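Journal club prep — side note

Before the paper discussion, L.F. wants everyone to see what a predicted structure for a comparable chain looks like in C-alpha cell form. Sequence:
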Amino acid sequence: MLTRDVPVQPRYPLFTTVLVREPKTGVGTLARIKNISLSGCYLETPQQISENARVRVVLQTTLIHADVWGIVRRRDANGVGIQFTNGATVDDWKRLEAFIQQLEAGGPPTSVPLATRRHEPKA
C-alpha cells in the first residue's frame, strides 16, 4: 500500500464557530471548529459534506479573520477533517499563519487581527 509523506502539523484546540460554504451548491452552514493547524482543521457539523469536496471556511473571531479554501479529506459521524489549500487572498493566508504562530508560541493570540488594525498617529 502506498502512502503519501505528508508532514504532520501540530494541532491546537480552538472552540469557535465558523462558516463553511460549498461553492458547488452555494450552501453555507455554521460548524464548530475543534482543532486547527496550518495544514487544516476538524469541524463538528451535522451537514453532510462529501469527501474531496472543495469548501470555503470563514474563520472570524475577535482574535482572527481569515477566509481559507480547503478540501474535505475525511468524514466521520461527528464532522469533517479539512485540508487547507490556500487563502481567499494572500492576506487571509498570512493572517492564518500569524494566528498559528501565536498558538505555537504557547498561548492564545493577543494581537488585533490585521483586518481591524488601525494606524495610530505617531507621537
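L.F.'s comment for the group: The longest strand covers residues 65-75. Keep this in mind when we get to the figures.
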